[in-house]
Amino acid sequence: MPKIIYNHADGTHDVVDAPAGTSVMRAAVTGGVAGIVGECGGQAMCATCHVYVRPERLAGLPAVSEDEDEMLDCAAAGRDSERSRLGCQLFAGEAFDEIEVDVPESQS
Amino acid sequence: MGTATQGSRVVVVGAGQAGVETAACLRDYGYVGPITLLGEEPTAPYQRPPLSKDFLSRRVDADGLELRSADFYADRGIELATGRRVDAILPAERRVLLDGGGGLGYRHLVLATGARNRPLTVPGADLDGVCYLRTLAEAVALREWLTRPRELVVVGGGFIGLELAAVAAAGHRVTVVEAAPRCMARVVTPVVSDHAEAAHRRRGVEVLTGTGVRRILGTAGRVRGVELAGGRTVPADVVVVGIGAVAATGLAAEAGLVEGCAKGIITDEHGRTSAPGVFAVGDCAAQPGPGGALIRLESVPGAIGQAKRAAAAIAGVRGTPYGEHGMEDERAPAVPWFWSHQGELRLQIAGLPEAYDRAVVRGDPAAGRFSVFRFSAGELAAVESVNRPVDHMAARKLLARSIPITPEEAAELTFDLKSAATARA
Ligand SMILES: Cc1cc2nc3c(=O)[nH]c(=O)nc-3n(C[C@H](O)[C@H](O)[C@H](O)COP(=O)(O)OP(=O)(O)OC[C@H]3O[C@@H](n4cnc5c(N)ncnc54)[C@H](O)[C@@H]3O)c2cc1C
Ligand code: FES
């Protein structure tokens, strides 16, 4: 099963097995990973699912869509031009089989 | 389990968005006592918004709707009981009575009973083929109806009705019947109503406004059409009623907790009701809004915010926790916001749909991307955005911090809203 590693600012991390088709946001919310909110349920309308993808995991990810691009500019924690993504737009089994992200310190 | 912990039990009634969030936040905020979450629906707690969107269009299935995984509740020591209804509250004894007998004592009780469909009461409303869309069971039934091409009449041009009309338009003949002169009239400005109606018509949906339903016609117990107030009959084999919701206040009312508020269970800004230890959050609660007046929100962000504040009060967390748990900045009160997804229309509303004396449009409705800024006595009151999430995000900041902005600035596309929202703070 695809795997997602969420790294937190305090040095801890969560590892979640995500069934194919599950987004980085949904996997975090259902599994109770702190720091990812997903208020709009994955509609790319709230930017509370912002994550920084680890550089070595960027290859193979789908391009940032126009909607995602606009929302990333609104994220509470600063945008990283390379690494920032909306967790609700990255799907296990489609965008990645294994991914590692850093969770921002704030989502709102 | 000793009496000490037994005596600190939190009982949450209703395992929907607000109830689950309350239980989860209690643990996040360090609450160690027992937590029992009781829900009358048979399934694990799920998200409602996709029922009229991605679930109906089959982009997700039921297991993609769950709010939290089964492990989540177990790992946090949250006792989740589904298929359990609370039949009565005994506030003086601090106990609830469960269906099928038995009771449960609490130190704190959180009512998160949500809202129920407002029923259509015209003749024929009980015919086979008349459905509603609030619960997963209702959504499953509707999805089943729509496995064959249908003539579908949607009664009510509100968010839910229009969302499902947008999905059903692919493959079915859809008519929306709205009694008010325009769709979503209570909550959006005419510019947005017009735009949405035009978009639905382009999709092939017939939108009839300013007309009520006189009765539903049937043959052998099954729907065959809808008779409008003007006399016209629209053929139908499925009728979905989306005429709003009423707060589920029954339990609280019977316990004497609802004082003169027909709209919802009255609470303070932390969700406290008039009974000691009893809170109410989510769709069932009427809480003081940003202006202080009681408002009942029917939205996921509203439910989440209220759950967080009630949990903080119960857990004894000082101030308002934020940051790690995604809480809004405590210096800035929560700005109510809402979204609706209708086909290619992504609508977001920041602020409350209250009276306004001026509305300006930013962007071009013809291009399908614009926002309407509503002002009241010169102050920004609410912002509706269609496919302009960036305006929406800036608007929430402007509203939260009462940052002044003029109608002229709002309407001027070259005026940088986002910078204003941060720079003028
Ligand atoms: C089809 C649909 C689409 C929506 N779309 C959006 C959207 O796009 N954006 C948005 O922000 N909001 C949307 N909403 C609104 C949003 O889903 C609600 O505001 C939110 O679910 C409220 O959460 P709640 O916990 O207060 O109530 P609910 O989620 O309704 O949960 C209440 C639960 O309490 C249970 N209950 C009631 N009485 C008892 C009892 N006596 N004992 C035990 N259990 C009981 C009920 O069975 C129910 O499961 C939508 C709603 C619907 C129905
Ligand atoms: S969950 Fe709202 S933008 Fe991703």
Automatic annotation (TrEMBL), chain A:
Alphabetic keyword roster: 2Fe-2S, Iron, Iron-sulfur, Metal-binding
Gene3D superfamilies, alphabetized: 3.10.20.30
Domain of life of the organism encoding this protein: Bacteria
Domain 2Fe-2S ferredoxin-type: 2-107
Any one GO cellular component localisation term in the record: cytosol
SUPFAM superfamilies recorded: 2Fe-2S ferredoxin-like (SSF54292)
Cofactor: [2Fe-2S] cluster
Gene Ontology biological process terms, A to Z: P450-containing electron transport chain
Keyword Isomerase recorded: no
Example of a GO MF term: 2 iron, 2 sulfur cluster binding
Keyword Iron-sulfur: yes
Cross-referenced InterPro entries: 2Fe-2S_ferredoxin-like_sf, 2Fe-2S_ferredoxin-type, Adrenodoxin-like, Adrenodoxin_Fe-S_BS, Beta-grasp_dom_sf
Family statement drawn from the similarity comment of this UniProt entry: Belongs to the adrenodoxin/putidaredoxin family.
Name this polypeptide is given: 2Fe-2S ferredoxin
The species this protein was found in: Lipingzhangella halophila
Lineage: Bacteria, Bacillati, Actinomycetota, Actinomycetes, Streptosporangiales
UniProtKB/TrEMBL annotation, chain B:
Protein origin, superkingdom: Bacteria
EC number: 1.18.1.3
Keyword set, alphabetical order: Dioxygenase, FAD, Flavoprotein, Oxidoreductase
Co-factor requirement: FAD
Positions of the FAD/NAD(P)-binding domain: 9-306
GO cellular component: cytoplasm
Keyword Isomerase: no
Keyword Oxidoreductase belongs to the record: yes
Protein name in the entry: 3-phenylpropionate/trans-cinnamate dioxygenase ferredoxin reductase subunit
Principal EC category: oxidoreductase
Entry's Gene Ontology molecular function annotations: dioxygenase activity; ferredoxin-NAD+ reductase activity; oxidoreductase activity, acting on NAD(P)H
